[in-house]
Amino acid sequence: MPAKFPGRTPALAVLFPVLLSFLPACGGPADAQGGPPPAMPVSVAPAVQRSVTDVETFSGRLEAAEFVELRPRVAGIIDKVHFTDGASVAAGALLFTIDPRPFEAEVARAESQLAAAKSRAELAQTEYARAQKLLDSRAVSRQEFDQLAAGARTSEADIKAAEAALRVARLNLAYTAVRAPIGGRLSRANATAGNLVNEQVVLTTIAATNRVYAYFDGSEQTFLRVRAAGNAKPVVRLGLANETGYPHQGTLDFVDNRLNPQTGAIRLRASFDNRDGRFVPGLAARLTMTTSAPYQATLVPERAIGTDQNRKTVVVVGADGQPQFRVVQLGALQDGMRVLLGDAVKPGENVVVEGLQRIMPGVPVQPQVLKVDDRGMPLPPPSMPPTSAAPQQPGQ
């Protein structure tokens, strides 16, 4: 039998009241954790309505309105180069001279052949006239008369062939003087005096400078908006890499006849005046284009737009503080403000611009309404002065 110790309390009898004393203390935090979560603070700004026009931005490349690869039209030896590399020339200016002597000789030969053909034609015509008189008196056979008539007609054809050969010879002689077909700025001379050239050799290139084209690609939506504008030519503005903004204005003058099925883009072209020679073909260009007439639209800050899988959403906070997720269709971006198509958001409704990641469906939030500028962009909240720590009371 276990020994008994009189006057001692068993250990279990001592521990049991202690354990019971902890149960109320443990139940307090558990009950607190099961309550509703606190409302999270978010920053909101009102959606605004104003008149807007759709303006899109593009990247493009400048090209000359006219560009010519100058090739000789006859083969021969370059006799002289008449321009300085990089010079500006007018249409018709003499640029190269090909040795003309072989072509002058060909002209002389063609002239002699024409003279011989005319002499033969005169003789054939005289014999034909004589035979016609003799035929009336039956002094010549009908067969001989027909032969003389055919000879006269053949002589006339020989004259025409000789005249055509002479025209070709004179044309080739004229081609020995290579002239500028258009006015513009020249490249360097690829062939100098003494070189043998033919129709395959590019002597130089000429780029017209009075106008330049900016080629760029637009989306299918851009094409549809441009087509909806009808005959009105959209205004296109251009800026170079070293310029601020888009200081140069031009017009859209060409839309391609098909969209690229791989990219869904279509080639567009804008024309710009270049009489001052500011633009050089090949330069990169930044472009903006107005693609719609003015219309009333609802706008929200771009940072208010969220993504839910493949949908774009905004969060509207009502007077009760409940967040409402709304699916929206996006329009153009205007100075940091995004145009919303349709009526998913009404002007004046508060949309969340900061704190989207803290929002949970069904849980109210504490909205802080931010002031906005004249564009509708929210202004940063005023900074709060730091609060100093309260002095401790003696004995704390």
Briefly summarize what is shown.
By secondary structure, this protein is α+β, with helices and mostly antiparallel strands. It has four helices and 23 strands. Strands 1, 2, 17, 18, 19, 20, 21, 22 and 23 form a nine-stranded mixed beta sheet that branches. It has a six-stranded antiparallel barrel with strand order 3-12-15-14-13-16. It has a four-stranded antiparallel beta sheet with strand order 4-11-9-6, with no helix packed on it.
Describe the structure.
With about 400 residues, the chain is of the alpha+beta class. The protein is built from four helices and 23 strands. The chain has helices at about 10-35, 100-135, 140-175, 220-230; strands at about 40-45, 50, 55-65, 65-70, 75-80, 90, 95-100, 175-180, 185, 195, 205, 210-220, 235-240, 250-255, 265-275, 285-290, 295-300, 305-310, 310-315, 325-335, 335-340, 350-355, 365-370. Strands 1, 2, 17, 18, 19, 20, 21, 22 and 23 form a nine-stranded mixed beta sheet that branches. Strand 13 and strand 14 form a beta hairpin. The protein is elongated and about 135 Å long. The model is unreliable at about 1-30 and about 385-395 (pLDDT under 50).
